[in-house]
Design brief:
The chain has 623 residues and is of the alpha+beta class. The protein has a domain of 78 residues: Alpha-Beta Plaits. The N and C termini lie far apart (136 Å).
Length: 623
């Protein structure tokens, strides 16, 4: 049989068509290859690396925290371990056996391990932490029997260790695992879902300085997630910066013991710089409990404790300042020339006003005729009621209170604080839809009524008197240092928070009156000190629920030495709440602190020197 020319043409057409198809396929592959390698090469290389590389985060140690001398650590990192399980490395028929063995070593139930390793991830080669804060002794036991525990490993995980003085808990705070809410805010600052962050105090305020930089360990894995590289690539973590605080550990310990187990707070600061030397709020708590496995349970206990140990009473609770406010009233009266300081007002022990009888704190027979100096020394309510109601008025009183820093945030470097309250007629109208009355002015004139301030506000108030018109911004951070070289990275310089326009002669007269209060006023016995000249003012704040129990908030604000320049002085503000059995403790507490500071004495040595060994006795109400 012979093929015709038509058959030949048909055959050639089919060959040509196949060639065209092959050529099209070849060109398509070339174009695809060009696209993958050249056009989208970076994307696919990155994707390839993500698929073939296992990147493990290496946690960085947080910076440590020291007292003002930079040699006594307050917060350090201690070695701890986390036990991990890689489920895919456990033979399928041995999971229950391995889980039982591991649970026994860790002192937990198998159910807890099952909860962390549910069935749907038991073929995964990603490690799962089954228990943190595991001591080295348990790790040693696991290591000795590791051949019986396939898939089990461990990793070092530094834990915060809070040292020494318990009252530091409100200052340094504590840390915990980052929450989703925190992650939403911090996600673009290098934080991950496993980050440990500061929750309160300095740990939170300066978290970014303490954090450090996490490291990375990169290993090659197969499609099942199994590590196939022998030597991983490691980028080591970098420890965070160390912080040096303004706190003096000796003074903090002294203040803690002087306040004792009394609900209240005391603040010690350097008026010439704003450095906080001590800050104690009782009750306090143990910051170390938040690193334990029972952190959630312990936190709930603290949260439900009626004494509110989580609150820093020095900055987070405000109280009526009581008669300590008479310092501001005195300065306002003198600056405004509202009433001559040498002129006298009679105190008969009571005052009739608006159909009510207002009693001075000494009812009969009253203080008699008093000038400013003696009115402040004897803390006469009648005198200051008269000055406030008849000569100053609420607007001027409020204005001067704000000039002393009351009613506003103190701007101390802590994450939470309250502004207190300085009332005005306009404020009462908006808040209660009531007019301001003369009786309201009288209450405010002696630091009662709507007026509220924190202990730190009143420490700033007495600092302004000491500095003759200047309040420096209170602060707890002194220096930031490199954790490796100990080189100072930055220092906190004194910064003016408030500067008054009150005349120098006014400050001198107020200072003299505060010194006279110690030598000839109501607190002359508890504030007597042979070593240091002290200027001070007491305060006794009425609290409605404790009136029937004869209990009041006890205040004392002071600076010393009176005869030294501001650079050599300290200021102290102390409050003991009415919830305590009444013993007029604030003056004694403050004198003990001042004695201990300037005599370089412990609490025991200070009370012996002052003759206060009997201090558990009830010393009665005064003001």
């Amino acid at each position: 049989m012979y093929r015709t020319s038509g058959d030949t043409v048909s055959k050639n057409a089919r060959v040509f068509l196949l060639l065209i198809i092959f050529a099209a396929i070849f060109i398509a592959y070339i174009l695809r290859l060009f696209s993958m390698q050249i056009v989208h090469g970076t994307h696919y290389r990155s994707q390839s690396q993500r698929i073939s590389s296992l990147i493990t985060t290496l946690p960085a140690q947080r910076g440590e925290i020291f007292d003002r001398n930079a040699n006594l650590p307050m917060v350090i990192n201690t070695e701890s371990f986390a036990v991990e399980v890689t489920p895919g490395n456990i033979p399928a028929n041995m999971y229950d056996t391995i889980a039982f063995r591991l649970a026994k070593y860790l002192g937990i139930s198998k159910a807890e391990i099952d909860k962390r390793i549910p069935k749907n991830i038991r073929r995964s080669y990603s490690s799962v932490v089954v228990k943190s804060n595991v001591p080295f002794s348990i790790i040693s036991n696991i290591a000795e029997n590791i051949t019986d525990l396939p898939g089990v490993s461990w990793a070092s995980k530094p834990v915060r260790n809070y040292l020494h003085t318990p009252s530091l808990s409100h200052i340094v705070g504590y840390v915990g695992t980052i929450t989703q809410e925190e992650m939403n805010v911090l996600y673009n600052k290098g934080y991950t879902k496993d980050s440990i962050v500061g929750k309160t105090g300095i740990e939170k305020q300066y978290d970014s300085l303490l954090q450090g930089t996490v490291g990375r360990e990169m290993s090659t894995i197969d499609v099942f997630g199994r590590v196939i590289s022998d030597v991983p690539i490691v980028e080591p973590p970098k420890m965070g910066n160390n912080l040096v605080l303004t706190i003096d550990s000796d003074i903090q310990k002294l203040a803690e013991e002087a306040l004792g187990n009394r609900v209240g707070a005391t603040v010690v600061l350097k008026p010439a710089t704003g450095e906080v030397l001590a800050m104690v709020s009782y009750p306090y708590f143990d910051s170390n409990i938040f690193s334990s496995d029972d952190a959630g349970i312990e936190y709930s206990k603290l949260l439900n404790d009626t004494s509110k140990p989580l609150i820093n009473r020095a900055v987070q609770l405000s109280y009526p300042p009581a008669s300590t406010f008479k310092i501001i009233m005195s300065a306002a009266m003198l600056q405004e020339n509202a009433y001559p300081s040498a002129n006298k007002i009679e105190c008969r022990g009571f005052m009739n006003y608006g159909g009510r009888v207002f009693h001075c704190h000494i009812h009969r027979p009253g203080h008699g005729w008093l000038d400013l100096k003696n009115a402040l020394a004897q803390s006469c309510d009648i005198y200051y009621w008269t000055i406030g109601r008849d000569y100053l008025g609420i607007e001027k009183i409020s204005s001067y209170a704000k000039e002393f820093g009351l009613g506003q945030i103190t701007q101390i470097d802590l994450p939470s604080q309250v502004p207190g309250l300085v009332p005005t007629a306009e404020w009462k109208e908006k808040r209660y839809h009531e007019k301001w009355l003369g009786g309201d002015t009288m209450s405010c004139s002696i630091g009662q009524g709507y007026l509220e301030a924190t202990p730190l506000h009143l420490a700033n108030m007495i600092a302004m008197v000491s500095n003759e018109g200047v309040i420096y911004k209170p602060h707890l951070l002194k220096e930031v240092r490199d954790s490796v070289t100990n080189e100072i990275i930055s220092e906190v310089k004194p910064e003016i928070l408030t500067e008054s326009t009150i005349d120098k002669k006014v400050w001198l007269e107020v200072q003299e009156a505060l010194r006279y209060t110690v030598t000839d006023g109501t607190p002359q016995y508890p504030m007597h000190n042979k070593l240091v000249q002290i200027a001070c003012k007491t305060g006794t704040a009425e609290v409605d629920q404790y009136k029937s129990l004869n209990q009041w908030h006890s205040w004392l604000v002071a600076y010393a030495p009176y005869d030294a320049p501001p650079e050599e002085r300290v200021c102290v503000a102390t409050i003991v709440e009415a919830v305590n059995k009444w013993e007029w403790w604030a003056p004694y507490c403050t004198n003990i602190i001042i004695q201990g500071i300037f005599a370089h004495q412990t609490y025991s040595e200070a009370i012996k020197e002052l003759g206060f060994e009997y201090l558990n006795k009830n010393v009665g109400r005064r003001e």
